[in-house]
Amino acid sequence: MNKFRDFFNRHKVTIMVIPVAEKSIRQWKFNLSIAFVILVGLIVINVSLLFGTVTSRVVAVNLSSENHELAENLLMTQDKINSLYNINSNSSEEIDKLKITLESSALFLKSRLDEMDKTQEYISQLVLIFNEETSSSLPVPTSRSFSRMDSVQTLGETEVDVNGDDLLFMEIDALITNDEIAEIISDQSEIYNELVSKLESQLTYLESRPDFYPTVGRLSSKFGYRRDPITGASKKHNGIDISNSVGTKIYSAGSGVVTFSGYSGAFGRVIIIDHGYGYESVYSHCSELLVNAGDTVSKADLIAKMGRTGRTTGSHLHFEIRYNGTPINPLNILK
Fold it and tell me: With contact defined as beta carbons under 8 Å apart, do 155 and 166 qualify?
């Protein structure tokens, strides 16, 4: 009986241990599966973050390059503006200095001439008194062309003692030699006029140069060879196209004279302006022309309205700049 109980107890324990072991194995496999899923998720997240970091880095490098290029262009433009400002400033300073010098020289010459007038009047009175006292007929001076030596010889022939009048004649000689001041003033006036002429010429050139952006809108086509939007063939585009709605205002790129205003084939309604200095600008496909041939326009004057006349696929401004008759890229000139 005891033996049977012992045998039963031993086998009962074994039977109970087997289910517990199977349950632990299933739990371990479940935990392993969860860990694997978490690991895969972490790998996917890390790969996504790495890809995002690389993409952000590429975008940052591109933006940095573009910013650097824009900064260089801005500095170059600022240098050009500063150069023009310095030129104008220096010219203004030179003109102001010349004005002051001219005014000072003019005042000095006027004072010397006034002194000469007083001296001449005094001499004339002396000669009249001398003629009355000696019954002589010495000529009375009427201009500043007389000299000290002629006067001394005349007085010497009549054996007249003029006592201290030699000093007076010396002063007259000194006044007469101040005619050099007039020459200095003349030279300074020429320099002044040259500076003014140069400054006016420079300002006229800057006003005439067609560098004002003629309208607002989207730059839809650049200068150079392109595929023709109608025929599809490769063809040189002699200007730039700026697209916007019909009626958008168009302005003169620079001051000048309108040489053509009317309809011209593929250009439709077109305006051509001669700016001088070899520059000419063309405004095509307009819906309305607001200036006529022969009119004088200033930079940024309203001259037309955008349209789609002539050979075109939509409303835009075809804008050209010609230098000595040859089309050039407007984007190299426009501000």
Answer: no
